[in-house]
Amino acid sequence: MPDPTFFIGSLPIHGRLILAPMDGISTYPFRSLARDLGSAISYSEFISANDIVHPPPNIENHLLFHESERPMAYQLLDHDPERLLAAALRLMERSPDIIDLNLGCPARQVTSHGAGAALLKEPEKVSFIVGSLVRALPVPVTAKIRLGWDDKSLNHIEIARRLEDAGAALIAVHGRTRAQGYSGTVDWDAIAEVKSAVHIPVIANGNISSPNEVRQILEHTGCDAVMIGRHAIGNPWIFSMQDRESVTAKQAVMWLHEILARLVNHYQVPVGVFRFRRYLVEITRPAPIAPSLRERILSALEPDEVHALLDQILTG
């Protein structure tokens, strides 16, 4: 095996491209395929600490990972220090490699409870939470942040330094504020400021859609790696540094067969088939298929029927 690209604490990381944690997306079926294509770390979708302390019936779908995915990171979301610690300790029973703290989710239903990006407004609380996790856990603690709540309260450098001082082993930076959500320009200069302000590894994140942008943001920011989120849904081949335009129709159809099989195995029918539809839409966006065939695939309920219809993409 080649030398590590960088380390998270003492954990070696091989590669500079990483699938971002995304709600409803970063579960085993998609993560595992991203890893096959080159993603260097598996991050879970964000997991509410309350769902670990008081598990709902479907929690296993969110927590399952395979040994082949290591290094594996669970991302926790909450505002309560005690509940976050209790959840992290319970997750240790599953032997993850990393516990990551979500300090970036901009969704109103999250921030209205003081979690996600809302914690950026409480720097001392961030220090306390991370410090308590670092002292209690046997694995590296990391965090994913935004630049601040809005453009009048940019505090990415303060938060980054607090994270490092509290013992965090890595910071991923989405180069927008909470107020921006997923719109507006990603501030590469601000990400570079975080990289210059700390001595731990920093991952750049935010609207990276092509291999060329991967190269440019790494050069511009000096970051150790790049985290790719929404654009990876339509082009998972970006983890192999391929533009979507270079992926053949045969490759795309083979990938669709595989994600369907893994989704159905993971969620069973009909949920796996329903979840497949988003991938079909995103994967075929650059090369639209016949509207009638697309509608038949999107309305099919049985996996065998979907597989048969996918083969028709290449024949007609």
Could you provide a short overview of the structure?
This protein has 14 helices and ten strands. With 316 residues, it is an alpha/beta fold. The strands form two sheets. Strands 3-10-9-8-7-6-5-4 form an eight-stranded parallel beta sheet. Strands 1-2 form a two-stranded antiparallel ribbon.
Secondary-structure content class: alpha/beta
CATH names the topology of the largest domain as TIM Barrel
Mean pLDDT: 96
Which regions contain 5 or more consecutive residues with pLDDT less than 50?
Answer: none
What is the CA-based Rg, rounded? 20 Å
According to CATH, what is the class of the largest domain?
Alpha Beta
What can be said about the biggest beta sheet?
8 strands, parallel
Question: What fraction of the residues are assigned to beta strands by DSSP?
Answer: 5-15%
| Number of distinct beta strands | 10
The run of helices and strands is EEEHEHHEHEHHEHEHEHEHHHHH
Number of domains: 2
Shape annotation? globular
